[in-house]
Specification:
The chain is α+β, with helices and mostly antiparallel strands. The protein has one domain. It contains six helices and five strands; from the N terminus they run H-E-H-H-H-E-E-H-H-E-E. Helix 5 crosses helix 6.
Amino acid sequence: MYLPDPVATLRSVSKLVRPGGVIVFQEPTWVPVVAHLAALPLWFATASLIDKTMRVSANHDMGAELYHTFVEAGLSEPTVRLELPMGREPYLAQWYYDTLSSLLPQVEQLHMPIESLGPLDTLVQRLQTELAESKTVACWFASVGAWCRKA
């Protein structure tokens, strides 16, 4: 997601793999996360802000593009899977807070609407409260994994 030419990189890396060896890549995707969190307004706003901030410096569609990246690199069609961790565990809210905190310089530089989230020092607590009062579960970013054997 951070590489300027993923196809060329995959082509180059695949030269290091012997015939019959396995080539595996995993990339995050926020598309199912943002869709799932629509029922949780604060979670949705937090995930959306993270997604929009990261899109400036990364290809957030890389997970969905893994299949075609493998094929365009001359590899066989990969097996592709999506995993979406879901639950009500408190660490999920903490992960969102930690991720957002690490992105604060970019959020400020891009003038993203972080004030819409309210005070950050209570964000974890408010995320947990919103989840506890709902009838759904939260989720972390989805991982798209793709793999194939080198011919």
